[in-house]
Amino acid sequence: MKIIMLGAPGAGKGTHAKHITQKYSIPAISTGDIFRENIKAGTELGKKAKGYMDAGKLVPDELVCDLVVDRINQDDCKNGYILDGFPRTIPQAEALTDALKKQDDAIDFAIEVKVPDDVIIERMSGRRVCKGCGATYHIKNVPPKKEGICDECGGEIILRDDDAPETVKKRLEVYHEQTAPLIEYYDKLGVLKAIDGTQSLEKCAEDIDKILG
Ligand code: AP5
Ligand code: MG
User: Fold this and answer.
1) Residue 12 and which of 4, 39, 112, 138 are 20 to 30 A apart at CA?
2) 191 domain residue, yes or no
3) Which residues have C-beta atoms less than 6 Å from ligand 1?
4) Active site includes 36?
5) pLDDT class for 208, splitting at 50, 70, 90?
6) Mean of the per-residue pLDDT values for the chain?
7) 128 within a domain of the structure (yes/no)
């Protein structure tokens, strides 16, 4: 099963991708996480990506497409995968469609997580991430068991660099301009599904399970 998670920054793509991974045993591939790992490790890719990310802009397509195509050709992706945060532009979507077509393959579902901008802004101010493993929390909705400490690895929980309110505003603008057109793109391919991402996490997971069958 090959799945794309579509939706604005903070819509819950990463949160729901984790549910799908656990339930269907397929890897979740988040380009944002890949860039953050590269920034932490001080790689060339990380150095190139950081400026764009901190400004709330997209990293250029040429730094993203080959990376994802290589990743989905790895062994653990044989039974499928979830793409979280990719594609984000029409050229990225076309690169993915073409790469899959060469293998006589295609995306099965593009799941749009619908959340209005005002809810996004409220959510992002409460999001916290683990400095160690990147696990995501929310101070009100999804708090860690022990304040400030990651449930999964015991790491310190912090505000993500690009979650400052003015950067969130920029990321939303970029989403509406460059990423939202993908909804129509995947609708035309006949694989678009949508869930209401303002519901409880349990209800969102239930709706996703209904889509995936
Ligand atoms: P990326 O890491 O992908 O960030 P994003 O798209 O902005 O999305 P987020 O991770 O912020 O949100 P999410 O939808 O995963 O929500 P989450 O589950 O955390 O990208 C970061 C940057 O990297 C980009 O700005 C860009 O610069 C670059 N980049 C990445 N991919 C790229 C690409 N392909 N091309 C170019 N550049 C790229 O949930 C948010 C919060 O809400 C959490 O606290 C969660 O606990 C809570 N929450 C979620 N759902 C619910 C719910 N139903 N009820 C209550 N709380 C909820
Ligand atoms: Mg995410």
Assistant:
1) 39
2) yes
3) 7, 9-15, 30-32, 35, 52-53, 56-59, 64, 85-86, 88, 92, 123, 127, 136, 138, 141-142, 162, 171, 197, 199, 201, 204
4) no
5) very high
6) 96
7) no
Domains: count for the chain: 1
Q: Over the stretch 47-72, which tens digit does the pLDDT of each residue have?
A: 999 999 999 999 999 999 999 999 99
Phi, then psi, of 140 in degrees rounded to 5: -100, -50
Given the residues 2, 36, 127, 128, the one annotated as active site: 127
CB 4 within 8 A of CB 72: no
pLDDT by residue (tens digit) across 1-59? 999 999 999 999 999 999 999 999 999 999 999 999 999 999 999 999 999 999 999 99
Supply the CATH number for residue 185's domain: 3.40.50.300
Whole-angstrom CA distances from 64 to 10, 38, 100, 142, 192 are: 20, 13, 16, 30, 23
Q: Is residue 132 part of a domain?
A: no
**Residue 32: nearest ligand to its CA?**
1
Whether 100 maps to a domain, the answer reads yes
Residue to mutate, 20, 45, 123, ligand 1, most ligand atoms under 8 Å from C-beta: 123
Statement: the pTM of the whole predicted model exceeds 0.90: yes
Atom of ligand 1 nearest to the CA of 89: 35
The range of the structural domain enclosing residue 29 comes to: 2-116+171-212
